[in-house]
Structure formats: C-alpha cells, structure tokens
Amino acid sequence: MINFTFELVREALKNLARHKLRSFLTALGIIFGVASVIAMISAGEGARREILAQISELGTTNIIINAKKPPAEEDVQLQQGGGNNELQHFGLTFRDAEQIRSTLPAVTEVLPVHDVEKWIWLKSRRLEAKVRGVTPAYLRRLRMVPIQGRSLTELDGQTRARVCVVRAGLIRQAKYMGDPLQLDLKVGSQFFRVVGVLPARGFQSTNSTVLRLDGRALEVYVPFETVTDRFGLVSRGRAGEGPRTRVELHQVVCTINSEENVLEAAKAIGAILERFHPRRDYEVTIPLELLAQRQRTQRVFNLVLPVIAGISLLVGGIGILNIMLASITERTREIGIRRALGATQADITIQFLIETVTLSVVGGLLGIALGVAGVAVLEAFTNWQPVITQGAVGLSMGISCLTGIVFGIYPARRAALMDPIAALRHD
C-alpha cells in the first residue's frame, strides 16, 4: 500500500511538472494564503506575549493610581500662556496613601512615587527622561530586576544617597559604550551614580482602562527619600519657566493580598479618593482588568483570523478546482486507457485526489517558507517581535491539505465517472 501511494505521488509530481508555470500559478493562492496565516498568527502571538508580559510585570494583584492635572486647570494654564506664578496643587497626597493603608485590610503594601521634572545630562548629552523617586519595594513589586549592577536598597533611602537605577534604553540613546556602572548622571544640578541597569522595556499608564506600552521608555529610578529631600515637592518644569505645581505623590501602587480581592479593593480605593479629590485629579489602573480585556480581544482575534485565512485559501482552492477540471479534460483519453486496463473508479478518484493534495502540499511548503521570510523581514525593519509557533505552521499546513482534499473531490469524481468507451474515443 505504501509503495502504491508513493507511486501515485511520484506520478502526480510528474504530471504537475509537465506544466510548471501553470502548476505554480495555481499554487499561488495556497502559497499566499498559508504565508498570510503564518504572518498574522506570528504577529498576533508576538503582540500577545509582549503585552501579557508587561501587564504581568505590573502585577495582577496591584492597583496603580496616577496623579493627573484636572482638565479645567489645563485649560486655564493654556489661556494664561503658562506664566502663572500661583502655586497649583493637584494629584495624590501622603494622606491618601495613609488613608488607604490604614482603612483597607486587603491592602498589604502602599508604595509611593514622586517624579522630578529635570533635564538629565550624561556627559555632554541632554536627555529627556522621567526621574522617579521610588522605594526598593516598588522595584521588587513591579518585578524590575537589574540586568547589570544592583537595585536600590533601604540604606540608600535612609542615607539619602545620590544613586540611581536606569533603563538600558537611556544608555543606548546616549550612545555610551563604556561601563554604565561608572557613570554619573546629572539630574538638574546634582549628580547621581548609576548602580544598576534595568531592561529597556517599560510601560506607561494613560487612563484607568488603557495601558500604553512603550519598549523605549526612558526612566531613572532614585531613592524616594533622596528625591523629596533634595528636590522638594514643588516643580516648575525642566527649564524652570513653567507654572509652579505641588504634587506630593505622582503615583501610588497598592498591593492586594489576593486576586479575588482586587476588584473589591479597587472600588474601596475609588471611594476614598472620590471623597478627598472632587476634581478627579487622579486615574486608577487595574492590571487584572487590563489582562481580562486583552484576553477578550485575543479571543475575538482568534475567531477573525480563521475567517481571513479561509478567504485566502478559498481563492487558492477555487484555482485548484479550475485547473484540475481543465487537466481532466486534457487527459480524457488517458483516463479511458487506464479504465480499459482495469483501473476502477476508486483508483481514478484516488489518483486525481492525490494530485490535488500534492499540489496543495507543495504550495503549503512554499507558503510556510514565504511566511517565515515575511516574519523575518517584519522583525528586521520594525520594533515588532513576532513569534512563529509550531501550532501556526501545523495549522497552515493542515488547512492547505484540507483545501486540496475539499476542492479535489469534485474533479476526481468527475474523472472517475467518465464512460471509458467515450473517453477512449475522445480526441
């Protein structure tokens, strides 16, 4: 049986090789269909893994609260041209952090963050990066593990040490080629020694329901106590010419004792903040909700993808059906001779079905090669990180074989049902 099948496959390849160009054009639909399936699945899988990894980095048991300027005050600032010397108060306060810590038993940690608006100088290069005053627990909770050097310590905060941990993207942007642990960053008028380097990947929250992920985020982390003591809580922009603002805390990260209590704790935190912040000068990000939203989006994508792939392969299948019908007409006399020599209808059906499946398999293999090449090009010329999975390759190959079977049955049966005598008389 194996030898018989091998003989039919070899005969099918021989028949396809007689009309190389026609066979190649027929297989183009399958080739591009399979390539598009692999490219789409790979791009989607890469995006899914990247976003899930960064949401996981935020922590599914965390609730992140960010300070923001009320829209009404932003409008006033624009009308006044930014020259107002009146001190503006907004954002989160130490009282908010203490209120959350003392009233919600489900909250195990409340981690404060204070940002500094200062230019950063590395050697002769001026960099625009976010300087964040954080505690060591903040870096641990958000899974920020240095790839070089060390993290911040409790002693750094107690001694108000001028040390910092930076993102690798900042070192790359500064085009510094030496040892980053020998660097002194100038933040405003003060120097900070780099003691650790974090991976380049970062994240930035834009509102309570959307997370904007930025793999090129430039961030510098310094001890929280150092920031509040050396720079204070009043800011006037990087150039010192903007409106004077006082923000005690730009961010507060609340850690909940379990995922089951996250949504309930978020409601309680929202109630506390609404009581003390009628201007809504804050926003709440719940990574657990972001994860659920992403999973729902992925499910929709998983439903749409087969439809798109099916349309592409439908076109390829129609091409196979058309060319096989034309081939049967050309080989009518051959079919008659085979029937006269004792071939049954089943033999003829299997012969032409294997021919269509062989054409689909060859097209599928070429499509896989094209899809892999397309993914490599996408990765080389963009910041995207697509992921080719075995499932994507297997699915593409399976669909291409199924296309050959489905669209090959009709012409194969039509060939098998021909009248042998009429076929022999065909000229």
* Overall average pLDDT: 81
> Uncertain regions: pLDDT < 50 for 5+ in a row?
204-216
Q: Label the structural class.
A: alpha+beta
Percent helix: 55-70%
Instruction: Give the N-terminus to C-terminus distance in angstroms.
Output: 34 Å
Task: Work out the number of β strands.
Answer: 17
CA-based shape: elongated
Number of domains: 2
Query: Given the structure, what is the number of helices?
Result: 14
Radius of gyration over all CA atoms, rounded: 33 Å
Percentage of residues in DSSP E strands: 15-25%
The largest sheet is:
12 strands, mixed
Tell me what you see in this structure.
The protein is an alpha+beta fold and 427 residues long. The protein folds into 2 domains: 184 residues, no CATH class; 227 residues, no CATH class. Helices cover 56% and strands 18% of the residues. It contains 14 helices and 17 strands. The strands form 3 sheets. Strands 1, 3, 4, 5, 6, 7, 8, 9, 10, 13, 16 and 17 form a 12-stranded mixed sheet that branches. Strand 4 and strand 5 form a beta hairpin. Helix 2 runs antiparallel to helix 10. The chain is elongated and about 100 Å long. The protein starts with a helix and ends with a helix. About 3% of the residues have low confidence.
